[in-house]
# Entry
Amino acid sequence: MKVFAILNRKGGTGKTTTAVNLAAALAIKGKKTLLIDADPQANASLSVGVLATKGMHSLGKLLLQEIKIRETIYPTYHENLKVIPSIENLAKLDPILINTPNSETLIKRALEDVEKEYEYVIIDCPPYVGIINLSVLFASQNVIIPLRNDFLSLEGLAQVTNVIDRVSSKINADLKIGGVLITMYDDRDKIIDVGRFSSLLFPTAIRYDRILSEAPKYGKPIFGYAENSPGAEDYRKFADEFLARFP
Ligand SMILES: Nc1ncnc2c1ncn2[C@@H]1O[C@H](COP(=O)(O)OP(=O)(O)OP(=O)(O)O)[C@@H](O)[C@H]1O
Ligand SMILES: [Mg+2]
# Structure
């Protein structure tokens, strides 16, 4: 089982869009995939048709150790893609987790129970760093950083790599930056210079495609909604590159 955090310190860089469409593309290619929605905004859950409501078994309840991981896993439109809905009440959860010893190990330990059932785990992260993201990074081997193709993104990149460096030196030596993905790309523009991360850039950049922002309204990844759109084409190519890098 390979675990990936989709992370950036900046908001609105395409984290959720990437988590959802990467997870769906992997599922379509026959990989047993688990999408975990770790953002209380619950956009990823919604984007695969799972409305995270109060009564649901969510990542929040898992972190509170009220339930086992299997109870939090919901089916989606595709048989190979399952989802753990997000946290419904972060304000309540955060202070509890801060006072729970080793709370950063909870996601990793929970995933051990389903290790044999999923090949890829894709985790959509919120943009801020808190106890939830620490727990996600503790459970992950690789971070994929979606980056908008503009100059100000470079500062976000520097911030997120600082976080990853800190986590890998303190709590998870296995954690690496697995790749940087340019999103919302206009093909009239040059790709920004990501300096020492250029070897980690995925060759495909995700073009700006309005349809990518429409699909969630129908609870579908881009593939179940507009198979032949530029967004679908780009995420399919990216998923091939991802699988070549992480077979
Ligand atoms: N390639 C794209 N083309 C057009 N719109 C996009 C593209 N990628 C994402 N979007 C839209 O941009 C907005 C932000 O994207 P998304 O929600 O994936 O970012 P995020 O990094 O998860 O944001 P947040 O930090 O709030 O969690 C959304 O409305 C999304 O539909
Ligand atoms: Mg998001």
In short: The chain has a mean pLDDT of 94. Residues 15-16, 39, 43, 124 surround magnesium ion (ligand 2) (CB under 6 Å).
